[in-house]
Amino acid sequence: MNKVKVLFFATLRDLAGSKSIELDVPAEMTVQGLKDRLAHDNPKLRQAMETVLVAINREYAFDATVLPEAAEIAMFPPVSGG
Amino acid sequence: MLREVATTIAPDYQTMDYPTIIAVAESELHLDALIERIILPTTGAAVIFTGLVRGRTTRHGPSQVALDEPQETLYLEYEAYKPMAEAKMRQIADEIRQKWPSVEGIAIIQRIGRLYPRTPTVVIACTAAHRDTGVFEAARYGIDRLKDVVPIWKKEFGPNGEFWVEGEYIPKPGE
């Protein structure tokens, strides 16, 4: 198992109802696998998982990426700074 | 000795000394003090872009015809994924130096928290020896990239409620 931390920002935090969670996930879980797991655990997140941006250890990550050990994962909508 | 070798084989050796200021800030931006920190003895031009909170927004169609009634903004609330935001801002500064090696100093600062109309929210400043070195384009590139890849979000509060402002850009691998 792999213990990861998932941070939620902006609309994702509103939907998740918390700023961050810790999860035990299988060793070879991908970003897509994590999205499926979160959508299953919290139906409010289901629709957002289709368009969410994901970062792993502060770099953008994509569906096929395997979650590294003890990763810091962040989920958020397209950015709107400036 | 090593230093001399480096100077010979790498003409841009000196760029290591060029100032780069990156910050996600919770306090007021002081433009004059900031610019002072990116001016070198060789600097003759500084391009400063600053974005502000707009108190009234009118959407325009073709020929600048107003599409609907102006919308009032009371304030914006900004939040950031701070460590990644600062890493991405540093990456943008690196991209600017790759594209415009003549740029000398770079400052990229975003304010977060509650910000009211007329308040500067972001500053991108680039300095160079002369104005025709790409320094205008460098600052423009900096703000465009910040709006695409730096993890910062804003929520708008108006007389009729609040809503998250969402961007459109989907970053690609390596961005």
Helix content of chain B: 25-40%
Helix content of chain A: 10-25%
Largest interface: A-B, 19 and 34 residues
Low-confidence stretches of chain B: 1-13
For the termini of chain A, the CA-CA separation is 39 Å
Strands of chain A, count: 5
Largest sheet of chain A: 5 strands, mixed
Give the spatial strand order of the biggest sheet of chain B: 1-6-8-2
The succession of helices and strands of chain B, N to C, reads HEHEEEEHEEEHEE
Morphology call of chain B: globular
The strand order across the widest sheet of chain A is: 2-1-5-3-4
Please report the number of helical segments of chain B.
4
Task: Describe this structure as you would to a colleague.
The complex is a heterodimer of chains A (82) and B (175). Helix content of chain A is 21%, strand content 30%. Chain A is an alpha+beta fold. Chain A has a five-stranded mixed sheet. In chain A, a hairpin with a 2-residue loop joins β3 (53-56) and β4 (59-61). The longest helix of chain A has 11 residues, at 31-41. In chain A, 38% of the residues are buried. Chain B has 175 residues and is of the alpha+beta class. Chain B contains four helices and ten strands. Chain B has helices spanning 2-9, 31-36, 82-99, 135-149, and strands at 20-25, 45-52, 56-57, 71-72, 75-80, 106-111, 113-115, 120-128, 152-158, 161-165. Chain B is globular. The N and C termini of chain B lie far apart (37 Å). The chains are: A alpha+beta (82), B alpha+beta (175). The A-B interface holds A 7, 9-11, 14, 53, 55, 58-60, 62, 74, 76-82 and B 51, 78-81, 83-85, 87, 110, 121-122, 143, 146-155, 164-173, 175.
